[in-house]
Design brief:
By secondary structure, this protein is mainly α. The protein contains 5 helices and 2 strands, in the order H-H-H-H-E-E-H. It has a two-stranded antiparallel sheet with strand order 1-2. Helix 4 packs antiparallel against helix 5. The longest helix has 29 residues.
């Protein structure tokens, strides 16, 4: 999954999912894919304004990029739950509702699932950590400049 779409064997996954009555992957996350690139641009603007100006609102807005990994995991978990609990009757095989593993190896019926983050998620974590460090460093610098 990417901010703006999918990659890999999407057709194969949709075919397998069809047999248990699961919607194709393009059904989920429509809003997220539509606004993903714009959200990243907005976060970039927040960071630029945070660097350029000393307004408290920009420091508060910087907590959005800090929270992005958690927001991504929450959204990803929601969609995994939704797909696993909204199975249709047209599936050839009937299975009970399930929640796929968010990170790690899991099992759904006779299939083994693998869900691991890749470079995009690790970059999101790095951006989060650097944003938090920037907030702390700027706060400390502003306190020191007002005390001088």
């Amino acid at each position: 999954f990417h901010f703006d779409g999918f990659s890999g064997e999407v057709h194969e996954m949709n075919t397998i999912n069809h047999y248990i009555g699961m919607d194709p992957m393009w059904i989920g996350g429509v809003l997220e894919r539509e606004i993903g690139i714009y959200a990243l641009l907005g976060l970039t603007l927040i960071m630029v304004y945070f660097i350029a100006y000393n307004h408290k609102i920009f420091s508060l807005l910087m907590f959005i990029p800090v929270s992005m990994p958690l927001l991504f995991i929450a959204d990803y978990s929601y969609w995994l739950y939704w797909f696993g609990h909204n199975l249709h009757d047209w599936g050839a095989f009937k299975i009970k509702p399930f929640m796929p593993t968010v990170f790690g190896d899991g099992k759904v019926a006779q299939f083994t699932t693998h869900s691991y983050p890749t470079i995009g998620f690790y970059l999101l974590v790095a951006i989060s950590l650097f944003s938090l460090l920037a907030i702390l460093a700027k706060s400390k610098a502003l306190k020191e400049s007002t005390q001088s």
